[in-house]
């Protein structure tokens, strides 16, 4: 698997799985100017993030440009066991997309 | 008599259309990134485009954010709700160029408890809107920003 941009920590805690996730991404808003040329830097940001567990969506985020650089998300979902796999798909505003996986600890 | 009957039928048809619209709306919102909402430049428009209404303040929505954010580029925010049947959680920053920051879709089984980090251009009210069983509830908090996170 190619090296992904998502760093995930998923841990089972009781009947829930706690997920902490960070994407390594610049989240360029399209409103910033290049200091040298004075021209606007084109927007490049994550637009959608979908996390599946056992074929079911557990978390979906639609992101705007005001999400911080290297976006961070934390959430819990019911179920999940150690060793389970999370499938994460992200879509950038440029149309670029990828799917990455992570294991639940 | 006939007029009366007609108006009754009309009323039934209208309410049917309303129910249909409210059932369809969240599906449309879930299907894709709502461009009109994310590009909207004021909060009311963004909220209308995304959620199709205005939210009422509720004590069942908890918004955790700092009073003063030293760095507007990274403002940690947590939204929780004790409401049942939460469908989505959206976060708005009133004075940002595009107030809608993020929309989380909460499938059944996932807690209405999410944390993330926002970018804030300047001191502004942060509003979290929770959609539960088709209704909108909100919580707001003023966050002071000493160094802005937009532009550069």
Automatic annotation (TrEMBL), chain A:
Sulphur oxidation protein SoxZ domain boundaries: 8-102
From what superkingdom does this record's organism come?
A: Bacteria
- Which Pfam families does UniProt cross-reference here? SoxZ (PF08770)
Q: Which SUPFAM superfamilies match?
A: E set domains (SSF81296)
Q: Which InterPro entries match?
A: Ig-like_fold, Ig_E-set, SoxZ, SoxZ_dom
Q: What is this protein called?
A: Thiosulfate oxidation carrier complex protein SoxZ
TrEMBL record, chain B:
Is Signal a UniProt keyword of this protein?
yes
Q: Which organism is it from?
A: Neptuniibacter pectenicola
Q: Name one Pfam family in it.
A: SoxY
Q: Does the keyword Secreted apply?
A: no
Signal sequence interval, chain numbering: none
What's this protein's name? Thiosulfate oxidation carrier protein SoxY
**What InterPro entries does the annotation carry?**
SoxY, SoxY_sf, Sulphur_oxidation_SoxY, TAT_signal, TAT_signal_bac_arc
Q: Give the UniProt keywords, A-Z.
A: Signal
- Please state every residue range assigned to the domain named Ig-like SoxY: 48-150
